[in-house]
Amino acid sequence: MARSGDIILRVQDVSKRFGELDVLKGISFELAEGGILAIIGPSGSGKSTLLRGICQLERMDSGSIEICGESLFSPDDTGAAVYAPPAQQKRLQLKLGMVFQTFHLFPHLSIIRNVIEAPIQVLNKPKRQAMEEGMALLSKLGLADKAKAYPYQLSGGQQQRVSIARALALNPEILCFDEPTSALDPELTGEVLKVMRDLAQDNMTMLVVTHEMRFAAEVADHVIFMDEGVIIEEGTPEQIFGQTNQERTKQFLQKFNE
Amino acid sequence: MSWQEVVNLLPAFLEGSWMAVKLFFITLLFALPLGLVLAFGRMSKHRLLSRVIALFQYVIRGTPLMLQLVFVMYFPSIQLGISGFNRFTAACVAFSVNYAAYFSEIYRSGIESIPKGQSEAARVLGFSKAKTFSRIIWPQTFKRILPPLGNEFMTLVKDTALATTIGIIELLRVAQNHMNRSNSMIPIVVALVFYLIMNGVVNLFMNGLERRYAYYKV
């Protein structure tokens, strides 16, 4: 399916229910190393919940998820999800980086501290090493001059780039994005999308929930269209954006072209 | 009253103030940590624990501190027939428990006001629960609760006057005694100035703290 490498994320028949509402109804897909998967779909389609399930911010009810060959959870006899031991959960957590729609930078920490806090506190890296690596990351993302600033002093686009640097500082295997440009003014989305394109060039494996159809079309090598908790259609960007024969997909894409 | 008489009163006033200062600091020493423990219990997913703490907060906040002072002072001797606390210890216990109940709600409102995204971001970065609280949530909470904490600190300075209920000689009692003796309002005015000075210090301290944490915005 994806362009290169082994499968590093395998999602099988995953379901999630919030009270009476079935948010995810048996989702399955795979992501190969170096692949870039875009998940598109209307609000409430369950795409963010799916991402949050993969990043362990939400407990899934059934199915299985495997990350880098290790099981995060798998179904028991009744199909209900049984999660791996806490140590394994934690290990798998660190294989994923997450970039949120509204950044969630730590406001009380300077930009560089935002980036190095997890390497120091979680990976127990020596401060000097974390600092050097953090500064290298900030330089790469064009933010070296902001290292000592605080989040409130940065534009939205800059804040989102910092949050990408913060996620990258833990060297994740997969970088997840939850609508990374939806909270930004249109003129600020470009700088974030550019960073994501650069990461794609570097062969970063990415899972992107997005409303940016042009980005999905240009950068992703695989696109999933979701609605009401199911995958309606998946394929290459050409298939989804060019020649879909699914009525629901057509309707959705039409709204973006208006 | 002559000026000389006022000056002669000062040692007694200083002694009364010293009682207020001691009560103030001892109360904070116990009530600030105890309040945090109560706040965690109140926010616990354990329903019974949370309800027990809520009931405790209701009883403490719903009854006069003066009554609580009397209760702590006399319950052991009258009801249990044991010697109980000396006056100052009883005051410290009653004040600490009372203020812990108020502090706990300030902590809880502060902690719950931190956006959920902060702990989620920390979680995906692999922070343990303890580190999420100590490194991410608490520093932001502390900045936010400084104004309501300042309120409580100033109220505490004034509430020390209630210790007189169980026979402790503090600033207001000293002033009243001298008012009665001299048939003059001057001792009361002097006490007023002493309270203002003490709360002036509290005020300066809290303003300083707020300035210290002004380097970032939430």
Shape of chain A: globular
Specify the CATH architecture of chain B: Orthogonal Bundle
- Residues in helix, % of chain A: 25-40%
Q: Major sheet of chain A: order of its strands? A: 7-8-9-3-10-11
Largest sheet of chain A: 6 strands, mixed
End-to-end Cα distance of chain B: 54 Å
The helix content of chain B, as a percent range, equals over 70%
| CATH topology-level name of chain B | MetI-like fold
- Averaged pLDDT of chain A: 93
**Could you tell me the radius of gyration of chain A in angstroms?**
18 Å
The CATH homologous superfamily name of chain B equals MetI-like
**Category from helices, strands and their pairing of chain B:** mainly alpha
* Main sheet record of chain B: none
Q: How far is it from the N-terminal to the C-terminal residue of chain A, by CA?
A: 31 Å
**Structural class category of chain A:** alpha/beta
Reading the helices and strands of chain A in chain order gives: EEEHEEEHEHHHEHEHEEHH
Low-confidence stretches of chain B: none
| Strand-residue proportion of chain A | 25-35%
Protein model, in words:
The complex is a heterodimer of chains A (258) and B (218). With 258 residues, chain A is α/β, with parallel strands linked by helices. Helices cover 36% and strands 27% of the residues of chain A. In chain A, helix 6 links the parallel strand 8 and strand 9. In chain A, helix 3 packs parallel to helix 5. The two termini of chain A are 31 Å apart. The mean pLDDT of chain A is 93. Chain B has 218 residues and is mostly helical. Chain B has one domain: MetI-like (MetI-like fold), CATH 1.10.3720. In chain B, 81% of the residues lie in helices and 0% in strands. Chains A and B meet through strand 7, helix 3 and helix 5 of A and helix 5 and helix 6 of B.
Please outline what is shown here.
The complex is a heterodimer of chains A (258) and B (218). Chain A is built from nine helices and eleven strands. Chain A is α/β, with parallel strands linked by helices and 258 residues long.
